[in-house]
Amino acid sequence: MEKIFKNTLVTILAIGIFVSMAGITSAVEPTVNTIELTPTQPKQKTEVTFTVEVTGENISEVWIEVEECTDPNSANYFCHPVYNLSATEDNGVWSVTKTLEYSDTAEGHCWPVVLDNGTWYSFKMDFSKWTNFTVLPADEPNGNGGNGGNGNGDSDDSPGFELILVMISLIAVIFIYKRKRIR
């Protein structure tokens, strides 16, 4: 009786191991092509369409993670936090349109995250699946190399209200000074 129990237990364990191995080996990583951008060299704070072709057993979701970074040649180089974009599918091609978020972006990186047959596959560490792109400076509205302003958020086209206040203060000081001098 004890021998039958041991044989049955060994048989059940062996079947369990083979079944679990079959489940592990049947999970095949999805095939992901490189993410394409339109336009290929976007400008800062402009709309970009990210497109990627993905094939697999049962693709149910595709996300594109985007990282915007400053000028890599500057002493203050850094990358902004990564943001996720949920793509929509059309015949195996997944796409999403998004406006770039940062005005100091000089380069960007993006990679896919795929939900295939109930398993998430992130390609963040697979640099062959990354798409690196250059971001051009935004259009300068008045061609003065800035944001249309004098560096403090004011437009060069606005009246000089600060100047008016300075002139009133100067006239008041002169008036008070002359008045004290007359006495």
Helix and strand arrangement:
Elements (H helix, E strand, L loop, with lengths): L1 H24 L5 E2 L3 E3 L8 E9 L3 E11 L13 E4 L1 E3 L2 E7 L7 E10 L2 E4 L8 E4 L26 H22 L1
Antiparallel strand pairs: 1-3, 2-3, 3-7, 4-5, 4-8, 6-7, 8-9, 8-10
Q: Please, what is the CATH homologous superfamily of the largest domain?
A: Macroglobulin (MG2) domain
Main sheet record:
5 strands, antiparallel
Per DSSP, the total helix count is 2
Approximately how much beta-strand content do the residues carry? 25-35%
Strands, total number: 10
Residues in helices, as a percent range: 25-40%
Radius of gyration: 31 Å
Cα shape: elongated
Mean pLDDT: 81
The SS-based structural class is: alpha+beta
CATH class of the largest domain, named Mainly Beta
Number of domains: 2
**CATH architectural label of the largest domain:** Sandwich
Poorly predicted regions are 145-151
What is the CA–CA distance across the termini? 126 Å
In sequence order, what are the helices and strands, one letter per element? Answer: HEEEEEEEEEEH
Give the CATH topology of the largest domain.
Immunoglobulin-like
Description:
This protein starts with a helix and ends with a helix. The longest helix has 24 residues, at 2-25. The relative contact order is 0.15. A hairpin with a 2-residue loop joins strand 6 (88-90) and strand 7. It is elongated and about 125 Å long. The protein has 2 domains: 31-134, Immunoglobulin-like (Sandwich), CATH 2.60.40.1930; 142-183. Helices cover 25% and strands 31% of the residues. Residues 145-151 have low confidence and may be disordered. The chain contains 2 helices and 10 strands. With 183 residues, the protein is an alpha+beta fold. Strands 1, 2, 3, 6 and 7 form a 5-stranded antiparallel sheet that branches. Strands 4, 5, 8, 9 and 10 form a 5-stranded antiparallel sheet that branches.
